[in-house]
Design brief:
34% of the residues lie in helices and 32% in strands. It is α/β, with parallel strands linked by helices. The longest helix has 19 residues. InterPro entries: DUF4410 (IPR025522).
Length: 167
């Protein structure tokens, strides 16, 4: 039984990718004004970033914010959550799988800024993620989602947005 448990955890370790995420934030906590809705805006340069990356990030960020009860408005909400993908490298999945230890590493750097509808900056989140190894090379989509989820958590903890009360 003990060998089965150990082999299970080892297989999970080798099958999944080994990733890291570092983020810094300067979001204002508990602002004086209440904001109830948001819209998401892509501020990334299209020459650097694959549309697939921006689609995954935006979809996951919106999904996580809606999970917290925040309302999205496509034509502009009380706050605009803009994201700028500064660096993106898919790396080499085969090298991550066969060699590991950072060879073939994938990188993602995103700056997520929160502004009110008048353009006043309420703060930003700088996130740097890396996918370094894994038996199947890991999935770049997983670090994109992890980065978006991290941004949503930081926005939630800052209490910039207020979820509407449901009767």
């Amino acid at each position: 039984m003990k060998k089965l448990v150990v082999s299970f955890f080892l297989s999970v370790f080798f099958i999944t990718g080994c990733s890291s995420l570092k983020s810094e934030t300067n979001l204002a906590r508990n602002p004086d004004q209440n904001y109830y809705s948001y819209s998401i805006k892509n501020n990334s340069s299209n020459e650097i970033v694959d549309k697939k990356v921006t689609d995954i990030f935006e979809e996951e960020l919106s999904k996580q914010l809606q999970r917290y009860g925040y309302q999205v408005e496509s034509d502009g909400g009380d706050v605009i959550i803009g994201y700028d993908i500064k660096a993106y490298s898919e790396g080499n999945r085969a090298l991550r799988m066969l060699v590991g230890f950072g060879v073939g590493k994938s990188n993602l750097e995103v700056i997520t800024s929160v502004t009110d509808k008048n353009g006043k900056l309420l703060g930003s989140i700088t996130s740097k993620a890396a996918l370094k190894m894994g038996f199947f090379g890991g999935s770049l989509a997983s670090i994109i989602r992890k980065t978006a989820k991290n941004a949503a958590v930081k926005i939630y903890k800052s209490r910039i947005l207020t979820a509407p009360y449901k009767n």
